[in-house]
Specification:
It comes from Methylomonas subterranea. With 337 residues, the chain is of the alpha/beta class. It folds into two domains: 1-102, Rossmann fold, CATH 3.40.50; 103-335, no CATH class. Helices cover 44% and strands 14% of the residues. It has eleven helices and ten strands. It has helices at 16-29, 47-58, 79-93, 109-120, 161-164, 176-186, 190-205, 212-223, 276-288, 295-310, 312-335, and strands at residues 8-12, 33-38, 67-72, 96-101, 104-106, 127-131, 146-149, 156-160, 226-230, 235-237. The model is unreliable at 246-251 and 322-337 (pLDDT under 50).
Amino acid sequence: MNGFNVPVAILNFNRPQMTRRVFEMVKQIKPRKLLLVADGPRPNRPDDVRLCAEVRSIFNEIDWECEVHKKFSDINLGSFKSNSSGLNWIFDTVEEAIIIEDDCVPSVSFFRYCEELLERYRDNPNVGVITGYNLGFPAVKNNESYFFSAYTLNWAWASWRRVWKQVDMDMSWWEPRAGKRMLQALFPKRKEWTYWFKLYEQIRKGDRRNAWDYQLILSAFKHSQYCIIPSVNMVSNIGFGPEGTNCFDDSSPMHNQRMFELQFPLIHPPLVQRSGQVDYAVFKSRFYHYVPFSLHWQILSRISLLIKTISPSLHAGLKVNFGKWRSTVNRKKFNHS
């Protein structure tokens, strides 16, 4: 009733409708401190000026006692630079925070869950991130409220300054042989460690676009920090589609997932430890079978956007039929993970 004590940060750009949905959830818990990061309009997209302004105007509706900090860019920095510099600014400003992206709608219980676990594991060096995201991962034991994983998941998450300050966006410490040994020690299955080794080698060589969340994951690998994953899903990503920054496939089983409320009081696991078997299941469902980031899918998504521009009616028909097929393929892969 008197406001939520944990600082809440929202990463924004040019999607007012999605930002509105996130804001309405945040408004329910009335955080006493709100940190807002927003990228600027792209010079080659005339609509961005209006859309970015609409996003920022939403926060003029804050009608509760709240200390508001803003980092609004006048120019477009791009997703990587805007979010990474924004996260630097957030954790320079506060010791701990809940981070929400503009297309990720959390449930109400997500906030209390983060608050309790931020306090419980504040000084535990083996815990790095608390996520609200669970895409049907294996069930927890003994009705526990959450489990630990080597895989850092974001979208809606919470962490501490001590964790973010360890993240090296430039991978300056990475050396191929040492990196491979680290991954092999962490993941005994060849499919698992080779996936990550190839990904980070591509980033190092400049063959793959860098991303702040990839670096957050790598930092957790390096420092043996685990992610807390809840027993039920508490965040829905509504940002999938042709106009998304990275997530183009709106038929993906990860799009617009159903949210649940976690029950309290929380039932805590007795030990902070991960399971290689559980991690492998998370890997297969969240990363290995996740096709929207592949090059061929990005090309198809761009073609789809072009057809939509030329003939909306043709695009609508193709989208329905192709979407049903893609959804069937993705869900079969997910269910067999």
